[in-house]
Amino acid sequence: MSEAYVHGYHARENQRLKDQAGTLVELLHADTSYPPGSLVLEAGCGVGSQTVTLAQRSPAAQFTSIDVSADSVAQAKRASDAAGLTNVRFQRADIFALPFAPESFDHVFVCFVLEHLSHPSDALGVLKNMLKPGGSMTVIEGDHGSAYFHPDSSAARNAIQCLIELQRWAGGNALIGRQLYPLMVDAGLDTVRVSPRMVYADSSRPGMVDGFTRKTFTAMIEGVRESAIEAGITGPEDFDRGIRDLHRTAEADGVFCYTFFKGVGTKRP
Amino acid sequence: MSEAYVHGYHARENQRLKDQAGTLVELLHADTSYPPGSLVLEAGCGVGSQTVTLAQRSPAAQFTSIDVSADSVAQAKRASDAAGLTNVRFQRADIFALPFAPESFDHVFVCFVLEHLSHPSDALGVLKNMLKPGGSMTVIEGDHGSAYFHPDSSAARNAIQCLIELQRWAGGNALIGRQLYPLMVDAGLDTVRVSPRMVYADSSRPGMVDGFTRKTFTAMIEGVRESAIEAGITGPEDFDRGIRDLHRTAEADGVFCYTFFKGVGTKRP
Lengths: 269, 269
Fold this sequence. Notes:
Number of strands of chain A: 8
Oligomer: homodimer
Helix content of chain A: 40-55%
Number of helices of chain A: 9
Order of helices and strands of chain A: HEHEHEEHEEHHEHHHE
Shape of chain A: globular
Strand content of chain A: 15-25%
Largest interface: A-B, 29 and 29 residues
Largest sheet of chain A: 8 strands, mixed
């Protein structure tokens, strides 16, 4: 996992990840819970945005949450401690050099990680090896090509395209959500089922407008402003117009759509 | 409703509309039913693809289904008769010259109609006038800008864009789904609630792949081949490559996504 994390590791980005996790908890995680005593590997826990939700929903499962960034792991541990969790063990580790024996876990959970890897299939293969036969793997990814909105705006679409390009240059794939099904099938997982989780925000859903359109998605695009300008793929005026147009979709007559994909597969017993 | 119907009125198109209706019945209509005795206006019934579903789901409601095309109305009546329905009255009528008194109906239902109108707001206003105070209006529309797929293909995206352009030139808007909320609010409807209905097709859902990806969406795009070539917005080779790439998304490792939008609002009592 040597790729650069395109979103950076700043305080504002961490707040964005927390806002995102709060808004999306039901949509993404309501149908994930693990039986008492099961051993779950969370691969790529980041600052623990999903960890707290996961561990609270399955209080009698034992989680091992890893991330390649020591700083992120430290923050995730603080978030977990603050939530009073006692069923999570944190460890700095690289998905491609895992310090665990094969078939050590009943379940693997991977959320917003594959999009940053240049070899997501290899990662799924490695993680499948960590599963006991009959175990399950859950994968959640977004897809920035699923974003559309009203009023439509080419400036806003171009600003989003900046992130897609930067992520591609860093070895990742911001359009990976739509590919979850073939990726999981290719990794040899069985009974793969992918379901889309669509975010729809209009002003009758103010929590989604504020929590997702503004504080999650638009904030995420804003986060690559400097990198995109430095890379020469946009100029300050064009980019800022795009951001204004994204904010415009959060007004009373605006609409914003985005889709996450959640896949669950099993390892043949 | 003087606009040209961009999809044409041919036998193949009618089959496409029936395939579409079969695949999407649950997704679009499962939550629509009308109480016994209520009077429902279906505006723009076309060949009756939705009429049969609607009337079967609300057997004790009385439907008045209109369309601007006499041929379509005749076909819709045949479909209704073949299904043994006795609670639908068909009539040729123009939305902008309705032969009914104001406040004649308890409910109005409009599906895949606004996308073809150059003044959808005016149509909603006229239809709202048909509603008794306290009555409801249900509107369903697609959004061709919501289509994305794996493998991604610029040729496929360009072929879709041909339909979007032709529909725009004919006075319509193939991206209207995302605008339902502001359109319904602008029409003065109350308690407007829009919900997206996303179609997700991968090979674990063969019915959706065949019924939607191939026989509904790709067939719809194929249906504008000649018009698009005549209009000079594509060439035969480019267009056919786009169609091949759309069919490619229906193969074992392909994925296709599309979203319909359903809005329900009420007229203030």
